[in-house]
Write a structure and sequence with these properties.
This protein is of the alpha/beta class and about 260 residues long. The chain has two domains: about 180 residues, Rossmann fold (3-Layer(aba) Sandwich); about 60 residues, no CATH class. Helices cover about 40% and strands about 20% of the residues. It has a six-stranded parallel β-sheet with strand order 3-2-4-5-9-8, sandwiched between helices. A two-stranded antiparallel sheet has the order 1-10. It has a two-stranded antiparallel ribbon with strand order 6-7. Helix 8 links the parallel strand 11 and strand 12. The radius of gyration is 22 Å and the shape is globular. The N and C termini lie far apart (about 55 Å). The C terminus is likely disordered.
Length: about 260
């Protein structure tokens, strides 16, 4: 049974997710990642002159493509240089994935300020400006952590995420079929509608499709419930403001009995 390296799996996975551009600065700590992404067909690697600039370029690419921006940085100063760009993506709520190289796992110790020759405990320093930041301890975690990172990059308020991968993990061979993915926990929230005289459900999606519109139309007809479908093809922030204004206006118009159920 054929196996691939963790770095190759990363490149292949992101390629399937529709990522077209990867922004990077090559380095010893990320050399396996650099090689895998450079040889992945369908991916273009763009070399920046500074890691912060690479993150800013990835953020711009994310805004233009409505997809995930991806950055490859090396260990130590490569990761710390990227922090400025990550802070900007954090403030602008842009989904950017930063994948950083790290020293060999045997050189990583808890409660120390640096690892090996130029390793740095980058995860503890970027947790406050990312939606999700973690270091991979075992190669078998790659699918679970990657899917979880992408989920948090887009879930609720979008933002940057960070995955730190030790040097030996990058080149480790894995069997794709044995990897376990991430399944987000769904929150079960009961909607009380029996006592309400006026009920309207709002749905928002960036997938502008006639199929989606027709499905919602049929659903609204069968359920006899007013449905409002908003299709957008850009930033979600103006729509969030629109929804707040709309919901406030709607709440003021609802009868007192209906308000108690909301």
């Amino acid at each position: 049974m054929s196996k691939i390296t963790v770095s190759k799996y990363l490149a292949k996975f992101l390629n399937k997710k529709g990522v077209k551009n990867v922004f990077m600065l090559s380095g010893t700590g990320s050399i396996h990642l650099d090689d895998a992404f450079a040889h992945e067909k369908g991916l273009d690697y763009i070399c920046a002159r500074h890691e912060a600039a690479a993150v800013m370029m990835a953020a711009a690419d994310s805004k233009l493509s409505n997809n995930l921006g991806v950055v490859i940085a090396t260990t130590g100063p490569g990761g710390t240089n990227a922090i400025g760009g990550v802070a900007e993506a954090w403030v602008d709520s842009v989904p950017v994935l930063v994948i950083s190289g790290q020293v060999h796992s045997s050189q990583i110790s808890p409660n120390v300020r640096s690892f090996g020759i130029q390793g740095f405990n980058i995860i503890e320093n970027v947790k406050n400006i990312t939606n999700f930041a973690v270091q991979i301890k075992r190669p078998s975690q790659i699918k679970y952590i990657l899917e979880k990172a992408i989920y948090y990059a887009f879930n609720k308020r979008p933002g940057p995420v960070w995955i730190d991968i030790p040097f030996d993990v990058q080149s480790h061979l894995i069997d794709e079929k044995k990897l376990v993915g991430y399944k987000p926990k769904l929150q079960n929230k009961k909607i009380r509608t029996k006592e309400s005289k006026h009920v309207c459900y709002f749905f928002m999606t960036h997938l502008s499709s006639m199929t989606i519109e027709s499905h919602f139309s049929v659903c609204g007809t069968i359920c006899t419930i007013p449905l409002l479908l908003i299709l957008y093809n850009g930033s979600v922030q103006p729509l969030c403001f629109f929804f707040r204004v709309l919901m406030t206006f709607t709440f003021c118009l609802l009868p007192q009995r209906a308000r108690k159920c909301s």
